[in-house]
Amino acid sequence: MSSRHHIDDFMRGRIIGKIEEGRKITDVAREFDIARSVVSRLWKSFKTTGMCSRRHGGGRVRSTTPAEDRYIVLSAKRNRHTTAQQMANQFLAASGKQHRTARLQWCREHHNWTEQDWACVLFSDESWFSLSSNCRRQLIWRESGTAYRPENIQEKDRYPTCSIMVWAGIMINGHTRLHVVANGTMTGQRYIDEVLLLHVRLFRGAAGDKFVFMDDNATCHRTLAVQDCLDSKCIKRLVWPARSPDLNPIENVWDALGRQVAGRNYPPTNKNTLIRAFTEEWDKLPQQLLDNVVQSMVRRVECCITLHGGHIPY
For the Tc1-like transposase DDE domain, which residue ranges apply (predicted)? Predict the structure, then answer.
């Protein structure tokens, strides 16, 4: 067990993110090589204060706000393989004046949108889910004290497959099927063939001319071929501010989906059962949950304006 006494804020964000996705405190402590009691106190503090940064006494003033803490946690959950340094670089890029100004401008442009306006938007996103955050380690779901029983020991391939990428979209009174991205690589052409034509086009046809499609600024989403496809199918796209997962309501749905899978009586143990579990739990999500997070868009926009384009606690 490591003798390290100080855990930086980015490490704290990664730890909180793993617990929120359903990992056990003991497993997280073992993965980061720190005492279980430290992880337990950090989790209790986060649930009480909503912050993952260390409380400073008479020393250095906190460098992040509670909303920024939440952004760090959210970013860690979006990409479980990100290192602390990569997370720091992303956070700094997403916290600069230019980025806040762009977010503030976007929110002001949409400040007059009502719940009825947002109800016409299909919010979409890709997300990674895995049996463990590190594919060199297999997550074994077991009772306490049974780690070395034969049924809890599994031989490993050198390069095990334990992660999946999924795509989905949500809107008021509806949602797409959960689409599993084979091999976990989304390209512009695959985005057209597997997402836009198979899923988004159908929602455009059902919703009519008021339909608006939201996706983020990932490279595969912004190719000329993708835009040509949207134009040819008369699909209006919602301009989206960069590095703004906190504004996208589907992020909250990913959280709920991860908790549902982690809470299954027989959690997944390999890639096939992982896919089956997420597909089944996605189909079970209550539409009211999806409606509630979409209806929060009015409040999200108002909150972001109040914070002058800063990260919001969603």
Answer: 121-267
Kindly report, residue by residue over 110-119, the tens digit of the pLDDT. 999 999 999 9
Question: Could you give the CA distance from residue 161 to residue 294 in angstroms, rounded to a whole number?
Answer: 33
Q: How far apart are CA 172 and CA 136, in angstroms?
A: 40
As a whole number of Å, the end-to-end CA separation of the chain is 34
d(CA 311, CA 313): 7
Considering 31-45, 132-146, 275-289, the range whose residues carry the highest mean pLDDT is: 275-289
**Is 42 a residue whose pLDDT tops 60?**
yes
Task: Please give the distance of CA 273 from its chain centroid, rounded to a whole number.
Answer: 21
Q: What is the pTM for the complete model shown?
A: 0.66
For 170-181, give one letter per residue: b (16+ CB within 10 A) or e.
bbbeebbebbbb
User: In angstroms, rounded to a whole number, what is the distance separating the alpha carbons of residues 119 and 218?
Assistant: 24
Say what angle helices 250-262 and 9-20 make with each other, to 10 degrees.
Answer: 60
DSSP H or E run through 105: helix 97-109
User: What is the rounded distance in angstroms from the CA atom of residue 283 to the CA atom of residue 179?
Assistant: 12
Backbone angles phi, psi at 159, to 5 degrees: -125, 75
Comparing CA positions, the residue from 70, 57, 54 lying closest to residue 17 is 70
> How far, in Å, CA of 237 to CA of 232, rounded?
12
Question: Hey, what are 94's tokens?
Answer: 């997403």
